[in-house]
Write a structure and sequence with these properties.
Shape: globular
Radius of gyration: 18 Å
Strand content: 25-35%
Number of helices: 9
Order of helices and strands: EEEHEHEEEHHEEHEEHEHEHEH
Number of strands: 14
Strand order of the largest sheet: 4-1-12-13-14
Structural class: alpha/beta
Distance between the termini: 11 Å
């Protein structure tokens, strides 16, 4: 009866250079391993210690990368462990099995979104009409499932984000601000639903999860145990629940701590 570990990636296990939070003296900074290169540039990192922990975790549990990234964005990541059998992409819209999307799963998700939410076209049109080009750098649609903006964070009006969240709520969508990206995602498009499907297929009797953003809250609540780092949307809101551990570590060292917690919980007697 395996243990299933479903973990968010960006700002949970892997970090951009801007998100590393290396606040210690340079001589004491951890050694870093690059795990993603994009357009010939290093993009994402984890500590070398975290890389070793992730390799150990692969022997102790079924590790399932769980991300809002598109399939193409996910496949750029080169984690220091054997390729996982399962991965969850597009916030649960795609369930990857041996690197290939499960088409039946995607069809089920797409059908549910059509029944329960305002269409993507309506949401995208609203974003185009209300977002100011002064602070928007890119408009993007991901996998024909959700939309997001890349923004200049320091110029972004807080009131606009709040108004967008209310507008989206009334149409069955949710809004999440992560770094320089604002996501508009249909409420039924969840990481937790895909995690439950992987647990069913693997027969997992214990589920563990970690994440830092609003889009990870459902995943953390659906798992038997969950962890969140000391940074991100959930930490900023002081969000917690009885089965959630709020860690003090911030930045790339939080990723290392999360992997230690996963290993300890996976190996604990049951």
């Amino acid at each position: 009866m395996p243990v299933l570990v479903a973990s968010d990636l960006d700002r949970t296990l892997i970090y951009s250079s801007a998100a590393l939070a290396l606040t210690m003296p340079d001589a004491r900074a951890p050694r870093l391993l690059c795990v993603e290169v994009h357009e010939s540039r290093p993009l994402s990192f984890m500590t070398e210690s975290a890389a070793g922990l992730l390799a150990e975790l692969g022997d102790a549990a079924v590790f399932v990368p769980t991300t809002t990234r598109t399939r193409k964005q996910y496949l750029r990541i080169n984690l220091p462990s054997p390729p996982p059998t399962y991965a969850i992409c597009a916030n649960g819209g795609h369930l990857m099995v041996d690197g290939v999307s499960d088409l039946d799963w995607n069809a089920r998700v797409t059908a549910r979104l059509a029944e329960e939410c305002a269409p993507l076209a309506e949401v995208r049109e609203h974003l185009m009409a209300t977002a100011d080009p002064l602070w928007v750098r890119k408009h993007r649609v991901a996998e024909d499932l959700f939309a997001y903006l890349v923004v200049e964070r320091e110029l972004l009006p807080e009131e606009w984000v709040k108004e967008l969240a209310v507008w989206a709520e009334n149409r069955g969508w949710t809004v999440s601000l992560q770094g320089r990206k604002i996501y508009a995602v249909p409420k039924p498009l969840t990481k937790s639903a895909a995690m439950h499907e992987v647990a069913r297929r693997t027969g997992a009797h214990l589920t563990l999860a970690a994440g830092d953003s609003l889009l990870d809250a459902d995943l953390l609540l659906a798992a038997d145990r969950g962890w969140r780092p000391g940074h991100g949307e959930l930490a900023d809101a002081d969000w917690t629940a009885p089965t959630i551990s709020a860690l003090p570590e911030r930045g790339v060292l939080a990723g290392e701590r999360i992997l230690r917690e996963f290993l300890t919980a996976s190996r604990a007697p049951r």
